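Structure (tokenized):
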């Protein structure tokens, strides 16, 4: 084991291995438990569900927004829709089906590119998307395992992710004795245990200074170095278009506020939440809320202009969600699922949408019509 060879590792490295180690990482296999058939990790039979698993409405409304972006881009011969971290492939399936049913010209110009780190999930997505028909899929669908393999300036269109950034490894820090320490992980007596390291690496110091991270005594929180690298890649590969990032998270002031004593790190196992990363390693999901201010500012530094920031509920309402379900039975499962997405003290406000643009003149996005936050909420630090 890496710890036996080199001593304690950073929490970020621990999270990276727990989620993405080949072949034991959480996202690298199906969920297999004694006496139960293997199941997907994401969804009702797994550990957590996501908005696309709940309802096709996120995909259907986003198609409307993407068609408006296509107008702004002047209907390029190839419009790339890049989805990063596509899980079971449910969003992709619903998005492509909706394109087919409402705009056949766009459907034939669409190149749907998936960036998916997990080979197991890539196969899961391919199986789901084969239902669309191999003829279309062979020409219009593609997969890559990492953004590093995507050429600079190669994308004209939209870069989209839902619940990707919260699944990127985070460094954790704690203020102890009025000094910031990095939380590291050791292995003793058959268990993973935490240890504190007061010698912070230059990368961590740089992040803390750039994003003005200040914690109060005994407070623990997260630093999102992997998310920063991810954002830089997105800025690099986009030539012209829009980045839409959906996830749960906060703006800077809210993220590091002093009453958030234990940070935002959480684990999910069979739809139950825990704060213990050292049990069920490789069998439970691990996640931290997104610092949207940091994402927006790294984007700006790397050529992505901030368009706006809002809650998922406002985003869906701005895109006319009510119209889409007006004629449906209000007691149907679809409408009940939608109310979960809109719930003011649930997913509707916990989830946020960050929109950025590159190589395009400013233009209004319908999804940002009703803004819960003004742009300065995300850009102030
Ligand atoms: C929490 S799941 C969300 C899945 C899906 N977007 C949804 O909403 O159901 C995170 C997804 O991101 C993938 N992932 C994590 N890190 C990645 C990376 N660096 N590049 C590409 N995919 C990644 C995981 O394998 C998984 O498919």
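Design, position by position:
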């Amino acid at each position: 084991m890496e710890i036996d060879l080199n001593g304690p590792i950073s929490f970020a490295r621990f999270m990276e291995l727990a989620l993405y180690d080949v072949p034991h990482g959480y996202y690298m296999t199906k969920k297999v438990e004694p006496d139960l058939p293997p199941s997907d990790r994401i969804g009702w039979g797994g550990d957590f569900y996501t908005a696309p698993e709940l309802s096709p409405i996120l995909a259907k409304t986003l198609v409307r927004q993407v068609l408006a972006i296509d107008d702004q881009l002047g209907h390029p011969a190839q419009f790339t829709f890049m989805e990063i971290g596509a899980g079971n492939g449910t969003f992709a399936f619903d998005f492509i089906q909706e394109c087919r049913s409402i705009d056949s010209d766009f459907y034939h110009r669409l190149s749907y590119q998936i960036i998916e780190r997990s080979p197991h999930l890539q196969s899961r997505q391919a199986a789901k998307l084969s239902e669309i028909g191999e003829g279309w899929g062979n020409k219009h669908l593609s997969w890559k395992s990492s953004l590093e393999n995507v050429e600079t300036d190669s994308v004209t269109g939209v870069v989209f992710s839902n619940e990707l950034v919260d699944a990127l490894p985070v460094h954790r820090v704690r203020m102890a004795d009025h000094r910031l320490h990095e939380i590291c992980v050791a292995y003793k007596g058959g268990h993973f245990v935490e240890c504190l390291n007061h010698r912070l690496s230059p990368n961590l110091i740089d992040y803390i200074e750039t994003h003005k991270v200040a914690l109060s005594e005994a407070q623990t929180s997260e630093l999102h170095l992997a998310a920063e690298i991810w954002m830089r890649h997105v800025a690099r590969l986009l030539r012209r278009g829009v980045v839409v990032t959906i996830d749960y998270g906060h703006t800077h002031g809210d993220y590091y506020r002093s009453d958030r004593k234990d940070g935002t790190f959480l684990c999910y196992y069979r739809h139950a939440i825990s704060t213990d990363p050292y049990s069920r390693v490789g069998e439970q999901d691990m996640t931290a809320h997104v610092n949207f201010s940091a994402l927006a500012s790294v984007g700006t530094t790397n050529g992505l202009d901030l368009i706006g920031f809002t809650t998922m509920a406002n985003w869906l309402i701005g895109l006319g969600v009510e119209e889409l379900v007006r004629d449906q039975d209000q007691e149907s499962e679809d409408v009940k699922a939608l109310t979960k997405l809109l719930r003011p003290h649930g997913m509707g406000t916990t989830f946020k949408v960050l929109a950025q643009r590159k190589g395009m003149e400013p233009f209004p996005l319908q999804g940002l019509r009703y803004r819960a936050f003004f742009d300065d909420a995300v850009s102030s630090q």
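Reviewer-requested clarification: The mean pLDDT is 94. The chain has one domain: 2-379.
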